[in-house]
Amino acid sequence: MNNDYYSKTYMPSIIRWGKITMLLGILTCFLPALVISFVYGHMPPVSAIIAGTISQISVSGAFYIVEPISYFPILGIPGTYLTFLSGNTSNMRIPCSSVAQEAAGVQLGTEKGSIISTIGIAMSILINIAILTVGAIAGSAILNILPEGVKSALNFLLPALYGAVFGQFAVSRPKLAAVAVVIAFGMNWLLKNGFLFFLPGTPSYAVTLVAVFGSIFMARILYKKELED
User: Fold this and answer.
1) Alpha-carbon separation of residue 29 from 24, 86, 89, 158, 226 (angstroms)
2) How far apart are CA 228 and CA 149, in angstroms?
3) pLDDT digits (tens, 9 = 90+) for 46-59
């Protein structure tokens, strides 16, 4: 794929269809609530809607800002559309994207990296759908026959994935990895000891925001220092 085709044909088509599918996805997500509210007349009071919205934003509002910014260099534009439409971002799409690019020997943020990322994410979605179909049909039966130790170990699956992805990038950027760990542990310590009491809502979002943007800021400083050296 040459550069002209990528920039003038491929990416405009991806962006156009990405916007369409994302808008359809948003409509589909709200459709059940709209039908229940306006067709069947089960409309919750406005106060309950506002309280629920504030509660949800205080817990996950930071991710609306952090995830697109921090994941974009790995996913690329097509992969970002696929990922945020299909879900399972951190526990499946990010690992599949990064591993696919590493296996293909391409660099993150490049045109080749974006294409390989898209292929890896697309394959993970297809496999995910197949496994979920089997799990929905026979999931409870499979879980019932698993030993208790295996069931307990499944609780560590997501932390293990986070650690694996972090380790993969820490190998190439050990200084930045060390800084990120210090920032994350420092913010968690402040949170647990009540030093973030002045923030509205549940202040756990501050840990994510500071850890992500603090790491980006330090990455910029380290990058400039490497250029000077």
Assistant:
1) 9, 12, 17, 25, 46
2) 52
3) 888 887 787 777 76
For 127-153, how does the pLDDT look when each residue is reduced to its tens digit (9 = 90+)?
A: 988 888 887 787 777 777 878 888 788
Beta-carbon contacts of 116 under 8 Å, excluding residues fewer than 6 positions away, are 100, 101, 104, 106
Contact 28, 35 (CB under 8 A): no
Q: 80 or 209, which is more confident?
A: 80
Phi, psi (deg, nearest 5) at residue 122: -60, -45
Nearest C-alpha neighbor of 208 from the set 57, 97, 61: 61
Contacts of 213 (CB under 8 A, 6+ apart): 66
Nearest of 149, 117, 151, 160 to residue 14 by alpha carbon:
117
Residue 222 confidence (pLDDT) above 80:
yes
Q: Looking at residue 44, what is its pLDDT?
A: 84
